[in-house]
Amino acid sequence: MTTVLRAKPDPATVAAVDAAREALLAEVDAVDVGDHLGHLVEGERVVTHQFACLRKGYSGWRWSVTVARASRQKAVTVDEVVLIPGESAIVAPAWVPYRERLQPGDLSPGDLLPVDDDDPRLVPTWSYGDDPLDADDRAQVRQVAQDLGLGRVRTLSVEGRDLAAQRWYDGDAGPGSALAQAAPDHCHSCGFLVRLAGPLSDTFGVCANGDANDDGRVVSFDHGCGAHSEVRLAKKHEPVPVPEPVFDTLTPGDVERF
To answer: Pfam families, from UniProt (predicted)?
Structure first.
């Protein structure tokens, strides 16, 4: 069992509210500084005093002034003055790299999105033994594949295939979408489903119904929509049949006679 030793509050640094405020006012305008909100014991003879921030646009933020006292010294020194967000502060979302922010449909004509040589979603179409790690060896593999006329230099790896399958299944083409939840039946029994070949053939197909939202898209067998080939309207929803037309043989003279 590990014992956590907590630093005891140092009376001198805890009481240094005025010194902390003075250091803060040397950095920012007084109109931006509010009441003292309390202190945090950071370590032995190290305390952070917090003050409300009144600056426009920084609601919920607070000024943080850290002070310290050296051993056997009476004077308190200021370590840093910073502005930090509180629990109710509006902050920017966590940074997401540009490559991870790309979504299907983001690429415009002419845009290029190169794939890394070590992308785990792809494996060499032709290789010898273990996949070569050296860049020159990878280039040689590509050249040999081209010379042998093998077509694609790299193909989908098992990991890449599983990632795609999970992404499709969890997306709008899977069973969890609102369209599928309201569907009268599943795609596996629809006559418009074109089955895939290969490892994904047990789970996915392509919709070939031009009237459906997913026309030309990969869908899971347990997906569905209202354009299922076997869907039928209830009698109360069927259109009212139009009566047989009647040929009118009356002439204006016949009408006057009546």
So the answer is: DUF3027 (PF11228)
